Amino acid sequence: MRKKPSILGLVLLCGLLATYAHATKELLIHGAWIREAPPNAMALAGYLTIENSSGAERSLTVVTSPVFEWIEIHRTVHDGDVAKMVPQDAIDIPPGGRVELKPGDYHLMLMKPSRTLREGDRVPISLKFNNGETQTINFPVKKQTLSEKIDASAEKKRK
Ligand SMILES: [Cu+2]
To answer: What ranges do the domains of the chain cover?
Structure first.
């Protein structure tokens, strides 16, 4: 008779602890996605937004996934009319600030996928920060968005 309430109490406690841990997370990651690519693509691009609610600068330094041979941090920069991708050692997120990894800017370059990824797949990617924190996020695979398609066709017309 006494066991049931104590198990319930434990479950409630676990729930409270989980809520507490979530509430105190200093680095919040949202909007993560991987752009679907043709089946034989050597590299895919991954995007996400990182918010830093701590009082100190944090840097994203190492990114790994069991699905990719290796992952680089890139930034697309424009040199006149030419866009090129420049590997970055890290991405710094200022205290109280946010950095958006998005098409045409910072992105994760996901090298040599072990299998073909299709829209609707979810891929675990681990993000390691310079304070020792690691977060593993399931990135959904999506096709490019409609607004990007419009951007891309506008880009083509300009050339
Ligand atoms: Cu790249």
So the answer is: 27-158
| The pLDDT value given to residue 36 | 96
The whole-angstrom distance between residue 71's C-alpha and the CA centroid of its chain comes to 11
| Whether the predicted pLDDT of 61 surpasses 80 | yes
* Share of residues in the chain with pLDDT > 90 (%): 71
Cα 60 to ligand 1 centroid, rounded to whole Å: 16
> Ligand 1 centre and the CA of 97: distance in Å?
23
41-61: average pLDDT: 97
Give me the CATH code for the 27-158 domain, please.
2.60.40.1890
DSSP symbol at 145: P
* CB-based contacts of 1, cutoff 8 Å, min separation 6: none
80 φψ region: left (φ > 0), alpha (ψ -120 to 50), beta (else): left
Which residues fall inside 5 Å of ion ligand 1, going by CB?
A: 74, 85, 109
- Output the CA 40–ligand 1 centroid distance in Å: 17
Q: How far is the CA of 57 from the centre of ligand 1 (A)?
A: 24
- Claim: this prediction has a pTM higher than 0.70: yes
